[in-house]
Amino acid sequence: MIKFLGLSAAICGSDLAIKSTVKEKVALNSRKDIVKDKVILTKFYNKGAALGFMSDHPELLKGITIFSVGSLAGALSVVSGLKGHALQKVGFSMILGGAGSNAYERLRYGKVTDYIRLNMGSPKCRRVVYNLGDFAIFAGTALLLLGECFELKK
């Protein structure tokens, strides 16, 4: 269990460190190419969940955030006690780390700092701004689902 919590803490701490640097050194809504006009460094504050969802209900969102992070920690604790299930353990660890960094900011500042924009896909997709925590949540969810699929086949 400790190594999986360590992975969560590493993701959370790394994202918070990047967010701190971005808040200090990057101008709001600025644009700096990181990878040939495909990956853009910027700074954007999101007062809601994904895509601004529930930004009009900040206190409810904070409550849902606390419940969600607690549930993720509980799920990681349960799956960590099982033999095997490596993809699920890593998946839950990554999701918890990403959710933890976003939860910390939402609870402390009332908003989450996003800083990576992918300049590809539809015009609507090009406007979305992410952070490392978001990518950890996406990747962790994919690993969790893959692990569940493989486990069901056995």
Oligomeric state: single chain
Mean pLDDT: 94
Helix count from the secondary structure assignment: 5
- Structural class, from secondary structure content? alpha+beta
Spans of 5+ residues with little confidence (pLDDT < 50)? none
Order the strands across the largest sheet as they lie in space: 1-2-3-4
Estimated helix fraction:
55-70%
N-to-C SSE series? HEEHHEHEH
* Shape by Cα distribution: globular
Distance between the termini: 24 Å
Major β-sheet annotation = 4 strands, antiparallel
How many strand elements? 4
In short, what is this structure?
The chain is α+β, with helices and mostly antiparallel strands. The protein has five helices and four strands; from the N terminus they run H-E-E-H-H-E-H-E-H. The longest helix has 24 residues.
Write the layout of secondary structure elements.
Blueprint: H1 2-25, E1 32-35, E2 39-46, H2 58-80, H3 86-109, E3 112-118, H4 123-126, E4 129-130, H5 132-153
